[in-house]
Amino acid sequence: MYGTTRQPVIDVGGKVTGYSLVRDRKTHYGRALVTIPKGHKVGSEGGSPFLPGEASPLVLHEVDQAEDVAAFLDIAKRYLPPVTGPDNGYVLVFIHGFNNRFEDVAVRAARLGADLGVPPNDMFMFSWASMHSVGHYPVDEATVDVSETSLKDLLAKVVTAARGRAVHVIAHSMGNRAMLREVTLEHIESVVSTLPDALPSHAYFAETLPLLTDIKNLILRDTPARPPTDWTHLGTYWRVGKPVEYLNPLNLACKPDTKYAIPTGNSR
């Protein structure tokens, strides 16, 4: 299930088939269905021509936009099964980084859910209106800043939809900028901040990080901060992540033997 600040793409019949790169004035909610092929490998989205034997790619094949918030909560109530134990007593929210389309985010969220063993309907995502271009990095910086309130609203709705389930959040790259400012502390069980594209000097980061210790589990996962000469670094200053700071062990509610892969690459 999703929340997105992108403008919908509508076919001739009036059905929403996806979302564009253009930022909308409102947040849209709904359910996205992604096909995960047999033979899926952990950490792979399939379909690479350079890897012989790779499984078919994960594909977004249907978008079901809710008419309004009430309809979205009704969808969540309908598809989230009753809690029977630790295996389904939680939901996971994925917040992506820059340079992503809606379909990229849907596929990545589905892949993360499959790799972590998350029940399909327990996986949520927030897709802010990032562009699909490395050259639009400054545009994405501005866009994620104005997406904070929409993320906060989505998290509040996820908490309502979860109906007592634990809520976990994975934020990647630039998505951490919105998450660090708007995460609803009292309702979040754990946060995984991966490759946070946030400046240590940002006031919101300095103010928010100590508060995040109130969350039961928090982990900042990053490679050493990259200097400005690194081609993968598009800003002027080093990013958060040096040194790596583990405040508490991550304890996502998934099977103990589950092997999972968290996105690695600051470009996505």
Please give a structural write-up.
- This protein has six helices and eight strands.
- By secondary structure, it is α/β, with parallel strands linked by helices.
- The protein has a single domain, classed as Rossmann fold, CATH 3.40.50.
- It has an eight-stranded mixed sheet with strand order 3-2-1-5-4-6-7-8.
- Strand 6 (166-172), helix 5 (175-182) and strand 7 form a beta-alpha-beta unit.
- Helix 1 (69-79) crosses helix 4 (148-162) and helix 4 (148-162) crosses helix 5 (175-182).
- It is globular, with a radius of gyration of 18 Å.
- The CATH architecture can be named as 3-Layer(aba) Sandwich
At CATH level 3, the topology is Rossmann fold
Structural class: alpha/beta
Count of distinct strands = 8
The profile of the biggest β sheet is: 8 strands, mixed
One letter per element, helices H and strands E, the order comes to: EEEHEHEHHEHEHE
Strand order in the sheet with the most strands: 3-2-1-5-4-6-7-8
Q: How much strand content do the residues show?
A: 15-25%
Helix content: 25-40%
Cα gyration radius (Å): 18 Å
Domain count: the total is 1
Mean pLDDT: 75
So what's the CATH class? Answer: Alpha Beta
Shape: globular
Low-confidence stretches: 222-238, 240-268
Distance between the termini: 20 Å
**Please, how many helices?**
6
